Amino acid sequence: MCACAHVFHRYINFNAYVQTCIQGTSFCTSAYNAFWLIMRNIARIAAVTGVTHFLGLIGKISVVMGTAGRCEDASWCFKFDLD
Question: Is 79 exposed, middle or buried (0-12, 13-18, 19+ CB in 10 A)?
Answer without folding.
Answer: exposed
